[in-house]
Amino acid sequence: MANISSLSLQNPSQPKFTGDSSIMASAIDLYSACDDAIPTIDYSLLFSNDPHQRSLALEYLGQACHHYGFFNLVNHGIPDKLLDNFFHGISEFFDPMMLDERRALYSKKDAMDRIRWVLRSSSGENREYLKVISHPNYHFPPNPSCFSEVLGEYHKEMRKIVVGLARAVSINLGFEEDYIEKAFNLKSGFDVSAMILYPPNHISKGEMGLPEHTDPGFIVTLVQNVDGGLQILSHHGKWINVQIPPHAILIQLGDHLEILTNGKYKSHIHRVVVAKNEVERISVATLHGPSLEKSVRPAPEFVDETHPQAYLGMTYKQCLEANGDDEIESQSSLHLIKLPNIN
Ligand SMILES: O=C(O)CCC(=O)C(=O)O
Ligand SMILES: [Fe+2]
Question: Does residue 272 line the site of ligand 1, with CB under 6 A?
Fold first, then answer.
């Protein structure tokens, strides 16, 4: 049965750097966070043939979206082996022996680059990543061999889950199951996937892997090969060390679900803290967005006298470019879209 609170979130088989390690002592001082459990949703139960189980699972999902804005997804159907192969391929990509060649190949040359390698190495951000557009068209590097095949398979499976979640969330919000798919035109949804290495090339210039931010889009899916480092600021103002069970997927609500629901389901601030070069972590964060041309504004069903319209309407492309970034390097523009509170 779906359970949002009682599943063990510990992962004894993976190395950790969150918690009591002396390596992390100074980072913990600066970026202390608690180890509160986060909700876990059983994806398979959202589609159970047993109506009672299904409605319970949907209710848990609604609570997780409303009160947290993020949750671990288990029994999602992506085979463990595929996830393991995926991480193996990414490790190979970041192989230090090959990296100079690949860096040169995929360093930004043009705003239209659909595959891009980026290094951030400063006191405020320490990571390197390969970003690709994974939908509506696939753009995957041909090397190392088999990498693009595994990447393609991973993203195909992940999109099925994203569409499934769009249906479940639509029902939760009291709509037909295709409501979100239509509101975001998900069939042509714009997905950007970042395969991230912390710290970059084993060398970090500070304790911050990725500074505080929220993400644009419908949802963000995140998988990782080592537990620890990601911290989320809860809606109650508490920093939480996010622990993801092996092979589970962390789902985070994006800014555009917040806009569509006029703030009922909110995105949340998160950041990544890195150890001092001792632990290497790979994560894959994919922003699943509306189609670029889709204008997203609060749906009329969420706007009334007590809940006045809190966000401007804008196309997804305008939102992604609002900070002066190109589509692939986009950051949240929620602060530009949010209307002053008129209550
Ligand atoms: O690597 C992580 O754990 C988080 C990545 C992230 O938040 C992002 O890429 O937007
Ligand atoms: Fe993020």
Answer: yes
